[in-house]
Amino acid sequence: MGDGNEPTKLDDKVKVPHQIEITWEGENSIQKLIRDTFPHLEFHIWDVSYMVERVILTPKNEDVQKLNDIIINHFLGQERQLLSFDDVEGDTHNLYQQEYLHSITPGGFPPHNLKVKKGAPLMLL
After folding, report:
1. How many structural domains does the chain have?
2. 61: which DSSP letter?
3. How far apart are CA 82 and CA 10, in angstroms?
4. Residue 61 confidence (pLDDT)
5. 5-28 b/e (C-beta count within 10 Å ≥ 16 → b)
6. What is the domain range of residue 80?
7. What pLDDT digit, counting tens, does each position of 100-117 carry?
């Protein structure tokens, strides 16, 4: 992190500078994180260099999904929903219910219901 320039504590923990700390105050903290990471987003929707210089990292897919659901609303235009395929090949006994298949999000896979808008970044791995 920081090309090794940030000070570390014992066990290689990184001390986060106070300037980038956000105290947890519920949903307001999430909005502040988005505003601080993407200031004036509405003016930079089509600015690729603006987008690639910013990132919010989270440890869990569910956190990514929550942030994506909030941030996508900042983009203008009609939202499209892309749904995953929800059948298991060869499952003749319906062992896997659709509700279960919709609820899982294994690493490296998008959620069952992926919301996209024209101009919003989409990373394909």
Report:
1. 1
2. H
3. 45
4. 81
5. eeeeeeeeeeeeeeeeeeeeeeee
6. 17-116
7. 878 887 777 888 888 999
